[in-house]
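tool_call: predict_structure(chain=1)
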Amino acid sequence: MADNRASFAQGYGIALFESLFEMDDKNLINAADKNFADFEQVIESSLELKNFLSSPAFETNEKHEVLKELKNKLNLEEPFYRFLCVLVDQGHFDLYSGIVKSYREAILKSEQKVSVNVTSAFDLSDDQKGRVLYALSKKLGKDVLLNVQVNPALIGGLKAEVDGVIYDASIKGKLNSLQKEMKS
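tool_result:
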């Protein structure tokens, strides 16, 4: 069931991107991305609001009124507001964060870019980040947006995740591999 929900979220995100892309207006795509960010900030700061919009216990017209207030307060674009209303109408508002992720991935893909999550055993200097960025860009053949996190449990080295594929060049990963070989 969880895979089904993720698939729905991905479908919504891609459909929204493609409909805006077909309008051939980069400003609309950027405006929707900004609307996602602004609205996401409000939703993440209010669990009560998130639960209200996701709950089948409340009437759709009540949810529309709240969305309209937020539209005016946040200066959300009309197409984005209508999109939120569709999510509420279909009972799929709980997919919001997955939709945002999917929408942003579609933007990156259209721009021949990729987002890479890098986990390092320690903080990387700007020079080290630059070298990692260069190596990944060269390997992937795309511009890379780097998201760096620190996890001292890696002991040394780093791990990179690209489109669900993990490249593990950490000492912990190498020790785990060696341990598995020794057990075989």
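agent: The chain has a mean pLDDT of 90. Proceeding to next step.
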